[in-house]
Amino acid sequence: MKTGKSWYIKGLDLLWRFFKIGICLVILWTISEVFLFSRYKIPSESMEPTLLSGDYIIVNKMYMGARIFDIVASVEREPSRFRRIWGYSKLKPGDIVVFNDPYPRTRDSIEFDVRKYFVKRCWGIPGDSLTIEKGFYQNKRLLLADIPDKVINKQDSLHYVFYKGERKVRGLSIKAFPKRTFLGWTIINYGPLYIPRKDDILLLNEKHFLLYRNLIEWETRKRLVWSNGAAYLDGRELVSYCFEKSYYFVGGDNVFNSVDSRYWGLVPEEFIAGKVAFIWNSINPMNNKVRWNRLGRVR
User: Fold this and answer.
1) What pairing do the DSSP bridges indicate for beta strands 55-60 and 240-242?
2) I need a labelling partner for 12 at 20 to 30 A (CA). Which of 29, 164, 228, 286 fits?
3) Positions of the chain with pLDDT lower than 50, given as ranges
């Protein structure tokens, strides 16, 4: 009897130890996912040739600092306050980032939905003035040496199509945000677009109204309208506006097949989850085989 009881107690003790180890692993995994690194799968062709459909990436959340927010409110698309803990670097033009889709339901208003993510390259940071000239991104802060040749080649192909080829691609819309004819902006010739940073003050003329209306309405939770040559915020005339947040311009490397800032505008800093660190796995969707040559860093 003593021997049987001894084995019984030892068995329970072993199970209890495994349970505690399991709890510790879950806690460590949760901390890692929230504050350190997260995993994502690339579902589309928008970042080809840098990232392919079927790539699995690791996102470094420590780079800019991990975000803390109300997950329940975010799932229900309700306003939520964000805090970003300390990060060891700032986002730079050329970095590849994962961020929440700013327009999960409509292009007319910004919403935060924790369930919907995009991955794109950052082409402009707060304080930059960005243009697209004949299909090529132009930013004084961005050196061509910072962008891989294969990405520049994609832009070169877009340039060739519209200036030496048929001038159109089936399924490709060249109409760019904010899609007003008097601006004449397209994904081939775009801007210059100033990217606001926190505490920037801009006059609200008609052009700025069109470019920044969604941002101002998202920050203030009030309606901004243009009437009789002036901007009105919640019924009060607004001559200038001081931005409370910073913003970024992002674009897919596959300029022929990417829905990005060219079409819907800027991304609030709070929406950026982190910088893509490397590809940890890659499965070819055509044959379900591992693409071993894809594993490693991305650029």
Assistant:
1) unpaired
2) 29
3) 1
